Amino acid sequence: MGNLKILLCAYACEPGKGSEPEVGWGTAIVLAKKDTSNNYFVITRKNNREKIQSQNSPENLSFFYYELPNLFLKFKKAGNFTRIYYYLWMFGAVRFLRKRKINFDIIHHITFVNDWLPSVFIKLKNKRNIFIWGPVGSHDKVPGKFLFTNKEKLIEFFRIKLQWFFRRFDPYFNRCKNHSDLIIGINQNVNKKLGLNTDNFLVSPAIGMKKGVVNFDNSTCTEVFNVLSIGRLIHIKNFKLTLRSFSKFIDLIDKEKRKKVILTIVGSGNQKEELIKITKELRVFNNINFIEFLPQDQLMKLYNESNLFLFPTLESAGFVILEAMSSGLPIVALDYGGPGQFIKQRKEQQLVDPNLSIEEIENKISSLILRLFENKALRTEIGALNKNTILKEFTWEAKADKYINIYNSLLIKKPLHD
């Protein structure tokens, strides 16, 4: 493979921001650095231009910046219409690229990581190129026992129905499903959701870490036992369970030790006031520290100052899980979605069976926290194992190697320009 034109479709692509923007940026920058014999092109949004151009990109990596007219941007900002804007943006981006008249050999959809909205870039596929859809995925259906209010139940109901509608009726979704040369899912559940009866599917998580980031020496911890949790304060992140489990842990230790335990929650969202109210009802308000937002460098410093990462999320990914593991932290989470996928060792000391009752889950989480609280050597040992897992399997470098191998194998199956 050499001298190919490879298009990476990355609506979200921004260095230093984490989450999906980091997926776009991390994938593109490392692929181009490793695969210098080919030319990489990225189509992304105009609002990513400034951050991208402040970085040193390889010579074989070029960016196209496209945005819909201002009217659509105003519509996007007027409400929670990001997915609608993204869907329309792809149509405009395809038209934008066609005007450039570049014959791409490989078209690889990177972000959004979404398995119920199609990649409209499938319109660029023809008999002379290769189209890869993924990594794609979505949150699994939230078990009813984790939906504590009627509002949460209603939101979940409409979320599932909306996904079903697009998977059933969107013509571009069916084109992606039936005509992609390869579909990459973030987990095996994607295969089930899409109802695939094909061998052109493989599993590979979307997210990764820089090798240089996986070097934190978790040694700045003070006498205070710092528990960290990060994420948007919405129902799928399960912060109500986090607080109740933490409260039960507090009840297990004596009053003097309680003064030296802090749970820091970083994030904002529509549940914040309700969560603050819960901390008061549980009488742990003085042990909780809410922080709205931190830049990525300060966030990584906070990981380094923590002893444990508590994150019983119900989502399928979880960039923060990788960040915590790369910082040498033990994790306490549900054996569900992202955490269940990334934690490879000492699972029984970090993960809780989500099929237990809510009370059993809370008790199990609190007991795991207690054991790690009482045993510094165990925290250090598990943290080192987690860090090693990231270095072996979940760096951007490892992911780039995997993608390059995928490109080569697809080219063997389908030689170009014949």
Primary descriptors:
Glycosyl transferase family 1 domain-containing protein; 6-stranded parallel beta sheet; single chain; 2 domains; 16 helices; globular; Glyco_trans_1; 13 strands; Rossmann fold; glycosyltransferase activity; 7-stranded parallel beta sheet; 15% strand; alpha/beta
Contiguous low-pLDDT stretches (5 residues minimum) are: none
H/E element order: EHEHEHHEEHHEHEEHHEHEHEHEHEHHH
Shape: globular
User: Total helix count?
Assistant: 16
In percent, how much strand structure appears in the residues? 15-25%
Domain Glycosyl transferase family: 227-369
Protein name: Glycosyl transferase family 1 domain-containing protein
GO molecular function, one term: glycosyltransferase activity
Organism: Algibacter mikhailovii
Structure description:
This protein folds into 2 domains: 5-137 and 170-208 and 395-413, 3-Layer(aba) Sandwich (Rossmann fold); 212-393, 3-Layer(aba) Sandwich (Rossmann fold). Helices cover 45% and strands 15% of the residues. The chain has 16 helices and 13 strands. It has helices at 19-34, 49-53, 70-78, 82-100, 150-169, 171-179, 188-194, 239-251, 255-258, 272-281, 296-304, 319-326, 337-342, 358-374, 376-393, 396-413, and strands spanning 5-10, 39-45, 61-66, 106-111, 130-136, 182-185, 201-203, 225-230, 261-266, 288-291, 308-310, 331-334, 351-352. Helix 1 packs across helix 16 (396-413) and helix 8 crosses helix 14. The longest helix has 20 residues, at 150-169. The protein is globular, with a radius of gyration of 22 Å. The protein starts with a strand and ends in a 5-residue tail after the last helix. The model has no long low-confidence stretch (mean pLDDT 89).
